[in-house]
Amino acid sequence: MGLPMNARLTDAARPERVASAIRPAAMSAPALPFVLAGREDTLIGQGCLGRLEAGPAPVEARVRAYFAARPEGPRLLVGALPYDMDAPAHLLQPAELTRQAGRPDLSGLLPRASGPRPLAPAGAPQWRVMAEPTLPAYRAAVTAALDAMARGQTDASGERLRKIVLSRSLRLAADRPIDAGALLQALARDESVTTFCVPLAGTEEGGVFIGATPELLISKTGAALLSHPLAGSARRRADAGDDRAAAEALAVSEKDGREHRAVVEAILDQLAPYCAELGTPEGTQITSTATMWHLGTRIAGRLRDPAMSSLELAALLHPTPAVCGAPRAVAARAIPALEGYDRGFYAGAVGWCDAAGDGAWHVAIRCARIAGGEARLYAGAGIVPGSDPAAEGEETSAKFAALLQAFGIDEDGRPLDAGA
């Protein structure tokens, strides 16, 4: 990405003219930095030299114009793309950038509070958990989607819905401010995921967007590109035998296999016109996180035009059938009414793009938006003919588990050590 491993750019390393120009913006840095911590490397961006403005031009064109107008600072933008690509992206240029090989201990990289700390309520946090929508309402939405598929219902375009991804959210309220840094460190203990933190200062939502995603939307280095879609899931089990059986059942599940193939084929079809080489060298495999089994397929290719931006590729693919459905336009039109809320950055993408167009974008799942003492968690499931509403509701509960375990509570807000 044009920055060597273990490199560090600071104000002190730049001419005084540049340092003076950026210092006021850097002083308004959020309490937590941008963090993207994966298996191979960790990227941390501190401070803010500027933000990408909204506009009618495609996001990749606005990024090129941004770097052309700003020669100072790290040649890289970091942040989040919304689920609805018509909504504003949240991309900022950090004032200070650190990249390290592997996944370091984040505790040494996160800022510490200075000055006297306010007295916190004694004992463990007390939580209230509100499901929005409720689990019965979610199952009813799944049933409605299945009924539409069974009837062969078409929308105004005349196309039939074949798959739709429906999500639900949990709103958590604590009796004290949530320690987002501690949550980030807890999520980072699962080395099978990419942990992320995106400060949302300056956005309508505010707060911070934190998660632990297992899914790579697209990465691009020169002409080389990678995508690793996941679709088809099963909850992991505490008993080793039961856990192995869950993985084996997923591997032969006709419903999950059909759901997964739809995602892979859509990505291959969208990338093929831009690639000189494209394939799935390892085929479909079972992958896992600490809480879930998934069907995953690594897609590798080489672009015909190495100048094509990672953001352009992300915009081409997003939203994939793994977070939206098929046909994409039909599912996208149906989702808002069935879910009943705005996804925001959930099911969008988090990552980075440099001035050369290289970058990496990860699907924003297993995530939460945190502001003060409140957090909103999200989880979804792919609905296809043969789906069972109760089982799909259970799948969303399983996907909430990664974040709920980091909070130390279950879906009802009870402490996990209380035997619930």
Task: Give me some keywords for this one.
alpha+beta; 30% strand; 420 residues; Anthranilate synthase; 11-stranded antiparallel beta sheet; 9-stranded antiparallel beta sheet; disordered N terminus; 23 strands
From the structure provided, what is the oligomeric state, counting identical versus distinct chains? Answer: single chain
Number of helices: 9
Q: Could you tell me the radius of gyration in angstroms?
A: 21 Å
Per CATH, the superfamily of the domain at 128-407 is: Anthranilate synthase
In percent terms, what proportion of residues is strand?
25-35%
Helicity range = 25-40%
| CA-based shape | globular
| Mean pLDDT across every amino acid position | 87
Q: What's the CATH architecture of the domain at 128-407?
A: 4-Layer Sandwich
CATH topology of the domain at 128-407: Anthranilate synthase
Coarse structural class: alpha+beta
Largest sheet: 11 strands, antiparallel
End-to-end Cα distance: 46 Å
Specify the CATH class of the domain at 128-407: Alpha Beta
What's the total number of strands?
23
Which stretches of 5+ consecutive residues score pLDDT under 50? 1-30, 113-119
Would you give an account of this structure?
The protein is α+β, with helices and mostly antiparallel strands and 420 residues long. It has a domain at 128-407: Anthranilate synthase (4-Layer Sandwich), CATH 3.60.120.10. It has nine helices and 23 strands. It has helices at residues 16-27, 59-69, 135-150, 180-187, 240-252, 254-271, 310-317, 328-339, 389-407; strands at residues 8-9, 34-37, 41-46, 50-51, 76-81, 90-93, 96-101, 127-132, 163-174, 194-199, 208-213, 216-221, 224-228, 230-235, 275-279, 284-288, 292-297, 299-303, 325-326, 349-354, 359-363, 367-371, 374-383. The strands form three sheets. Strands 1, 2, 3, 7, 8, 9, 10, 11, 19, 22 and 23 form an eleven-stranded antiparallel β-sheet that branches. Helix 3 runs antiparallel to helix 9 (389-407). The radius of gyration is 21 Å and the shape is globular. 44% of the residues are buried. The model is unreliable at 1-30 and 113-119 (pLDDT under 50).
